[in-house]
Design a protein that fits this description.
Acid_phosphat_B-like; two-stranded antiparallel ribbon; Acid_phosphatase_pln; single chain; about 260 residues; Rossmann fold; acid phosphatase activity; about 50% helix; storage protein; Acid phosphatase
Length: about 260
């Protein structure tokens, strides 16, 4: 009887000790892995910024004057740590797959349109100084940057450009830059970065002043078609490069989460 009583007491003590250790372990786990029960602010921001960029690239966030301040680190990481280049490579591969299906007519009227800024040449170094788009757009600051002619070629687009030229396409560079102030420096910058052999560089003149990018570029493309050109492809980093009249047989939107051109 006494032996049975001792066994019962020891059993109860063991159960109480086991319960206490389980509670202690549970509290310790929650403290050490707080992110599992309450997500950290960095993970919340990363999730929001991923969704924000998706909305921007699909043209569902309109308009957006600046990058949200909480997305500065996210946009920086995207632009400089490899994902941006991988996305560009994929899009250019798709464009070249389309090019391979085209048989040129041989009349020098098969055309392809390329935007310039952040399509052919990159302004990433400038936008780094503007917190990757978190700062408001600065027209005079950008003009001063563009006047230096320091924009670097975007490698995947330069590769596609050279293949288009080799195949016989007439490549039209279509930019919103001002002809009077940035004409020569833009030509020099493109040439220095390897964009050699395009058909023409079309820039804004006094006649286009005040027009939206969509209206201005639509009118240029329509004029090209009136001249007999067949626009097979159109590449740009802004939706306004691709929208409107006469967009081309296929359009290819490049990523740009740093700024928005209406």
């Amino acid at each position: 009887m006494e032996q049975g009583y001792r066994f019962l007491v020891l059993f109860l003590l063991a159960m109480m000790f086991s319960r206490a250790m389980c509670i202690r372990h549970h509290k310790s786990t929650n403290n050490n892995n707080g992110s599992s029960s309450s997500p950290s602010s960095s993970s919340i921001n990363g999730s929001f910024c991923l969704s924000w960029r998706l909305g921007v690239e699909t043209n569902n966030v309109l308009p957006w004057p600046t990058v949200p301040t909480e997305c500065l680190q996210y946009v920086e990481n995207y632009m400089i740590h490899g994902q941006y280049e991988q996305d560009l490579d994929l899009i250019m591969e798709q464009a070249m797959s389309f090019v391979s299906t085209i048989t040129l007519a041989g009349d020098s009227k098969d055309a392809w349109i390329l935007d310039v800024d952040d399509t052919c040449i990159s302004n990433l170094f400038y936008y780094k100084s503007k917190k990757y788009g978190c700062d408001p757009y600065d027209p005079s600051g950008f003009r001063a940057w563009a006047m230096k002619g320091w924009c670097t070629a975007i490698p995947s687009v330069l590769g596609m450009f050279n293949k288009l030229i080799d195949k016989g396409f007439k490549v039209i560079m279509l930019t919103g830059r001002d002809q009077e102030t940035l004409g020569q420096v833009t030509r020099d910058n493109l040439h220095n970065q390897g964009f050699i052999g395009y058909q023409r560089l079309v820039m804004r003149t006094a006649a286009n002043k005040g027009q939206s990018a969509v209206k201005y570029k639509s009118e240029v493309r329509k004029q090209l078609e009136d001249e007999g050109y067949r626009i097979w492809g159109n590449v740009g980093d802004q939706w306004s490069d691709l929208q409107g009249n006469s967009p081309g047989n296929r359009t290819f939107k490049l990523p740009n989460p740093m700024y928005f051109v209406p």
